[in-house]
Design brief:
single chain; mainly beta; 7-stranded mixed beta sheet; 4-stranded antiparallel beta sheet; 11 strands; about 0% helix
Length: about 120
């Protein structure tokens, strides 16, 4: 089992940047695929990015390619989401999630563990 805590959200101007962090408890962090999702009220949770166990493979939603970068530091039990070129459409609660499968999924229902989320608000 793993517990996840996100941080790094906030209010920024359009065009700005943020780095979200996802700190995990437990000694088996390396054995989890990590995904980032986001959700706005009234809409389904949306896939943003995911990274494989060792970090060699990354996947992105088309809407964030070129602006978002997912990474992980297994020695620190932490995953990151670097966000650049923020727009109002990026406003959402951002969640990190962990999955024991070696397969990297872009579907929220495949992930077993979730953080509490961190709010990102972009003003134009």
């Amino acid at each position: 089992q793993v517990q996840l805590v996100e941080s790094g959200g906030g209010s920024v101007q359009a065009g700005g940047s943020l780095r979200l962090s996802c700190a995990a408890s437990g000694r088996t962090f390396i054995s989890y695929t990590i995904g980032w999702f986001r959700q706005v009220p009234g809409k389904e949770r949306e896939f943003v990015a995911a990274i494989s166990w060792g970090g060699s493979s990354t996947y992105y939603a088309d809407s964030v390619k070129g602006r978002f970068t997912i990474s992980r530091d297994n020695a620190k039990n932490t995953a990151y989401l670097q966000i650049r070129g923020l727009t109002a459409e990026d406003t959402a609660v951002y969640y990190c999630a962990a999955d024991r499968s070696i397969v990297v999924y872009n579907t929220w229902s495949e992930y077993d563990y979730w953080g509490q989320g961190t709010q990102v608000t972009v003003s134009s």
